From TrEMBL:
SUPFAM superfamilies: Sigma2 domain of RNA polymerase sigma factors (SSF88946), Sigma3 and sigma4 domains of RNA polymerase sigma factors (SSF88659). NCBIfam families: sigma70-ECF. Coiled coil: none annotated. Residues 184-285 form the DUF6596 domain. It comes from the Bacteria. InterPro entries: DUF6596 (IPR046531), RNA_pol_sigma-70_dom (IPR014284), RNA_pol_sigma70_r2 (IPR007627), RNA_pol_sigma70_r4_t2 (IPR013249), RNA_pol_sigma_r2 (IPR013325), RNA_pol_sigma_r3/r4-like (IPR013324), WH-like_DNA-bd_sf (IPR036388). This is RNA polymerase sigma factor. Residues 115-166 form the RNA polymerase sigma factor 70 region 4 type domain. PANTHER family: BLL0085 PROTEIN (PTHR47756:SF1), BLL6612 PROTEIN-RELATED (PTHR47756). Residues 14-75 form the RNA polymerase sigma-70 region domain. One of its GO terms (biological process) is DNA-templated transcription initiation. The lineage of its organism: Bacteria, Pseudomonadati, Pseudomonadota, Alphaproteobacteria, Hyphomicrobiales. GO terms for molecular function: DNA binding; sigma factor activity.
Length: 419
């Protein structure tokens, strides 16, 4: 491994811890992230020349601490926050004199604070996702831009606006408790879920699957699960992602074309990851008697994972879980998925009835999902011309090139649903 690759690997591991540790004292996530970045840039300059330090984390922490002190000293001289910043400066100088002692501290609380702050619901979802990938994933602005297929300037703007919004709203760097914690946890999980889903079926671009983005979400989810082992929804989300990620090798063909679930070679599924996901699901189910949305979705994924063949899929159980999900977290997307399950369990006519009830739903007017499912159900009922029209409509709405090609192929020759 080259020195640069080693530095990047160290950075990916240490950056969230360093930023979290600094933010505790600086009380400013933006400033903490900036001085942590300064330390990384200095490492890129010096380590290839001088060699990797014996303790890279200690080196980065000391450099970042000194940069933070320098910035605070300058700030106390040029703006009016003398009293507040002087307290911060004195606390930082007093609380971080021994780098080795700092590294021995339990970092879990600081990381939790960082996660809850970066994913604060005061931020729009796309800003939360960008900031989480930056602060918790250690991704560069360019990497985040590639992750969401947006210009680098757009990704940078999201990050800047997120940090500014947190500062302007005076969001405390803390882990909420009680009801506020439950409410904020939902926002945190939404960010991880959003990142994974964007990788699982990319909303735009040429690739149907973005395994790198799914990997980042899974890494964030596992970190959160380690920090909050008694939260069933956290454990449920990780299990859901692991079970879905187990299918990656089977989800695309040699030409990177999509292969839908019921057409996949299950011998290519990652059974080690499935066992891990099922074990996590079992643990999560012992933590609650009322499964939440992520745990219910993990239960649905488990039904697919336990089926040795597509014909063995327990669609009756899946449709029941979707009914419970519709009550727990109602949304048009849940209803579309419920229509698929009901159509498989009880016949396409019943599934189509659910779809038809959604035709005037304004939140679905630009979504390709509704006409896709409608087309399949119509085809299974023998209404070929209407099915083809629905698939063509869906192809015109999707932003993903691979999915568009699949839908146009189905419009030319509809076949049974395999989603």
């Amino acid at each position: 491994m080259t020195a640069t690759a080693t530095i990047e690997a160290v950075w990916r591991i240490e950056q969230p811890k360093l930023t979290a540790r600094l933010a505790r004292y600086l009380r400013d996530i933006g400033l903490a992230e900036e001085v942590a970045g300064d330390a990384f840039l200095l490492a890129l300059e010096r380590w290839p020349r001088d060699g990797i330090p014996r303790n890279p984390a200690a080196w980065l922490t000391e450099v970042a601490r000194n940069r933070a002190l320098d910035r605070l000293r300058r700030t106390t001289m040029i703006d009016g926050k003398h009293r507040e910043l002087a307290i911060d400066l004195a606390e930082l100088e007093r609380a971080m004199p021994d780098i080795e002692a700092v590294l021995d501290e339990d970092i879990d609380d600081d990381l939790l604070r960082l996660i809850f702050t970066a994913c604060h619901p005061v931020l729009p979802a796309e800003q939360r996702a960008a900031l989480a990938l930056r602060l918790l994933g250690g991704l560069s602005t360019a990497e985040i831009a590639r992750a969401f297929l947006v210009p680098e300037a757009t990704a940078a703007q999201r990050i800047v606006r997120a940090k500014r919004a947190l500062r302007d709203a005076a969001i405390a760097f803390e882990t909420p408790r009680g009801q506020e914690r439950r409410e904020r946890l939902a926002a945190v999980l939404e960010v991880v879920y959003l990142i994974f889903n964007e990788g699982y079926v990319a909303s735009a671009g040429s690739d149907w699957l973005r395994a790198d983005l799914c990997g980042e979400a899974l890494r964030l989810g596992r970190s959160l699960a380690a920090l909050m082992p008694d939260e069933p929804e956290v454990q449920g989300l990780v299990s859901l992602m692991e079970l879905n990620a187990s299918r990656f090798l089977a989800r695309t063909g040699k030409a990177r074309e999509p292969i839908l679930l019921l057409d996949q070679d299950r011998g290519r599924w990652n059974w080690s990851l499935i066992r891990r996901g099922l074990d996590g699901l079992n643990r999560a189910m012992t933590l609650t008697s009322t499964p939440g949305p992520y745990l219910l979705q993990a239960m649905i994924a488990a039904c697919h994972s336990r089926a040795a063949t597509a014909a063995d899929t327990d669609w009756i159980a899946i449709s029941a879980y979707y009914q419970a999900l519709a009550l727990s977290a109602p949304s048009p997307i849940v209803e579309i998925n419920r229509a698929v399950a009901v159509g498989m369990a009880f016949g396409p006519a019943q599934g189509l009835a659910i779809v038809e009830a959604l035709m005037d739903e304004p939140r679905l007017k630009d979504s390709h999902l509704l006409p896709t499912v409608r087309g399949d159900l119509l085809e299974r009922l023998g209404h070929q011309a209407e099915a083809r029209a629905a698939f063509r409509q869906a192809a015109g709405l999707t932003g993903n090139d691979a999915e568009r090609a699949l839908l146009l192929a189905r419009a030319a020759s509809p076949s049974d649903i395999r989603s």
